[in-house]
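Protein modeling request. Please complete all fields; requests missing the sequence field cannot be processed.
Requester role: graduate student
Desired output: 3D structure, token encoding
Chains: 1
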Amino acid sequence: MKNVAETAAASSGQALTTAKEAKMTAETASSVAGDAKETALRALADVNDLKQSVDHVKKYS
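Delivered output (61 residues):
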């Protein structure tokens, strides 16, 4: 029975480690997604600026 308890304890420890690694992976993914969102918003702002510049050139050309 001692071996069963030791095996169960080891498995529990491994499960906890795996859960912690999964949490860190999820946090990293969330951070990457946030960075991607910021990049996309900056790109959209750049596109809008470019469109305004083109419209200005068309209007005054």
